[in-house]
Amino acid sequence: MPELPEVECIARSLRPRLENRRILGVEFRSALAAGGRPADLARFLAGRRICRVFRRGKFLLLELEGGLCAIHLRMTGRLVWQGAEGPHTRAVLELENGRLVLDDIRQFARIHAGERAPEAVSRLGPEPLELAAAEFRQRLSGRRGRIKPLLLDQRFLAGLGNIYADEALHRAGIHPLAPANRLGGRRAERLHRAIVDVLEEAIAAGGSSISDYVDGAGRQGSFQQRHRVYGREGLPCPGCGAAVRRIVVAQRGTWFCPRCQRLR
DNA sequence: ATCTATTCCTGGCTGC
DNA sequence: TGCAGCCAGGAATAGA
Length: 264
What we know:
By secondary structure, the chain is of the alpha+beta class.
């Protein structure tokens, strides 16, 4: 599941291959991969130069001459430079220097393109790695809901998904069901620190490869080996040794340590 | 504002 | 071995 660190790694690996290159054409192998009519998207993208490759939340963004291409990989999407085409190939971007292949088993990934950013991108909350602790704390104070669903809300904070939300809460010693506005200054700051740390460590490790993730060069990440709670039901918490528990929060599997993350 | 349920999808797993 | 049924979940959406 590409979350912020994985998309960041994809952006970094694709940047030298894509920037200042022209898109010759785009082929959609599945109409579902296009956020709009495939023919319209292909017509819009063909012939445009990619000026800049960057990330916003979990979106990979290609700034074009006179437009923007926004790609969201959702659960099982992969974007690989010169990738081999296979039964799950959903789109191929042909560039002057090679091809970018979108593979996606479950077909949730979408490619958008237009003169301006799609609504979902403009609605995104702040970037966690650029947000000051005081600002984060301020944003938390206005929210009455539980902390985990809030961390997953892309309008509140852009880029966290199920893995890094659980890992950050564990590092901060905060129960996933804790009310956001009752964390208090100290714990809010600890959570901010935990989010920044886990994201930076994950980026440095090349992301988490659980089932499908690889970067733009086809390389797997290794951060899954350093997960402390995510997907580890029954295994010992690295902090205290208590068995990690799994509950369901907002329809998502949620892992936490019942001893380190008390609900008060 | 906040919650829940539903939809989209398919490989992989469970249980009979 | 075969197969039905369920599960995983990011985000949009509807409805409470």
